[in-house]
Amino acid sequence: MLARAFVAVAAALLPAAANAACGKVIIDNDWSGSASYTSLLELLGANCTILGITSTIGNLYAYQGAAHILRFLEIAGIDYIPVYIGANEPLINTVERSAAWQSVFGAFSWDGAFQPDNATLDAEGSDPTGNNPFEITPIPEGLPTMKWQNESAVDFMIAMARMYPGEVEIVAAGAMTTVALAIKQDPYFAGNVKKISIQGGYVDVNLKQTDPTPSNSTFTNDDIYADFNFFIDPEAAKVVVNAPFIETVIAGQVSIPYFVTPEIFNQTISVVTPITSNLSTYWAGSIGTPLWDEITAGVLAYPEIITKSRQVYFDVDVAYGSIFYGRSFVAIAPYQPANSRNVTFIEQINFSGFLSNFIPALQGNYTTKRW
């Protein structure tokens, strides 16, 4: 991994790339926290046409995630992007079912929306978890006055793919549940989508989870190398990676070595805007966190940062009685599982090139609609 200081200096020396419009994009995420919007800013900075934002289950439930992203849109003056509620619970998995599996095969280091609820923390502004999928608790910057759309995220995704066949791109950075429901509801949906970039799909990382030395001061390796977006809904992950999208990009694992560093944080907030003022308060807690969602959006917004990838058949284990439940694996012909599909698995990126786009995007002003 590149030394953090070197990366920050290298990024500072690179001019921001002049981005052509990247296309029509739907960004699907769990919006888990008051600074979870950085991947949206990347897409805006790359002049993407944001058709809509969808909220899905993951680190928290979809309704609470929608409250976070709506409040940010208000703060940033980006009130022209519609927000849709997606899947609020997994296809099959439940709090109880996940706990039963963990009691046999070992506990997860992070349970996201399934972690035990704490009413005291909820009252203080913590996001609701456990068996409270419809509760919306206060958030630090205040609840939004903007409202989500009445149309469901699933219907919205299907409608956009039908309206713009072969043009829509999806960034999927939460659980895959909402996208899976769109696939099942409309058999033509996946074939109408130009590209999906997925935050998830780690392979060959089990040994790294046992490393006793944390990669940084925020997360332990058993958490960093845990494929939570797939673990919380393995069945949905399998539906999505098996679907006939025009291109499926697996961008989860490549993002693991790259963190929000103090240098990246300080360089970003050195330009004062309403957005960076918000980041200075709420993004500070992300220092030491991998840039999971951001790189997943980045490889779609500016694919020139990809320096190494390969085409592989890809699948997800959905055997509940298996210790590998929810884990990903790859294969080549003729050894691939039945119904698995070829994906683009990203192995390496130019991180300095990523930062030269990413940091200016966080400093941008998006109050005027560009499409």
UniProtKB/TrEMBL annotation:
InterPro entries: Inosine/uridine_hydrolase_dom, IUN_hydrolase, Ribo_hydro-like
Keyword Hydrolase attributed: yes
A GO term, aspect molecular function: hydrolase activity, hydrolyzing N-glycosyl compounds
Any Pfam family hit: IU_nuc_hydro
Superkingdom of the organism of origin: Eukaryota
Signal peptide residue numbers: 1-20
Keyword vocabulary terms for this entry: Hydrolase, Signal
Transmembrane regions listed in the UniProt entry: none
Span of domain Inosine/uridine-preferring nucleoside hydrolase: 25-355
Family annotation (PANTHER family): SI:CH211-201H21.5, SI:CH211-201H21.5-RELATED
Family note: Belongs to the IUNH family.
Annotated protein name in UniProt: Nucleoside hydrolase
